Amino acid sequence: KILSFDYSPDHYYSDPNMKNNIVMFKSCYDSSDVIEEGNPPGDPTHWKKTIWNYKATYNGLAEIFRNHPDTLFIPITAPPRNKLESFYTKTCGLNAHAFNDWLTGEFVDRYRGETGLNNVAVFNFFGDVLARPASDPDYPGALKDEYVQSGSDSHPNQAGNLAATAAFLPFINNAVREWRHF
Question: Which residues on adjacent β-strands are paired with residue 23?
C-alpha cells in the first residue's frame, strides 16, 4: 500500500493507477543501537538489534524492491546517537558503522548485480554526514559535536540539518538521474 500513499497512511490515491515512483524511508537514531554482530543469517523479526538481524531485514526487503523495478527505493540510514545519550556505547557506534557500510556498499552492489536493476540507492545519513568516524578512539559512531543540539539530545541541530541537506541534494539528484537513465 505504500506505493499508493498520497500524503498520509490514511489517504490513498483515488485513481488506482496512480502510485509513487520514489519511496524513501528512514529509521530514528535509536536504530543505531546495534548491540552486537549476531549470527547469520539473522532474523528480521527478532527484537534484538544486531548487524545480522538488520542484514536479514534488508535481504528480505530486496525481494520487494525486485518486485517493483519501476520504483526507486531510497533507504536513509539511521542517524547516530549523541555520545552523552545514555544508550550510546562504542560497541553500538562501531556496529552501526559496520552495518551502514554494508548497506551502502555490499548490499547495493549485490542487489544490483543479482537483479540487474538500479532501483535502490542508499543515502548514508549516518557515516557520510553526521557520525564520527569508526576510527575515532573515544566515540566512534557518535553524533559529531558540531551537530549536537544540547545536552544528550540525539537530534541534530540546525548545522547538522544543513549539512545533511547539503549532502542529500546532490545524492538524490544523482540517484534519480541514474534511475531514470537506467
Answer: 73
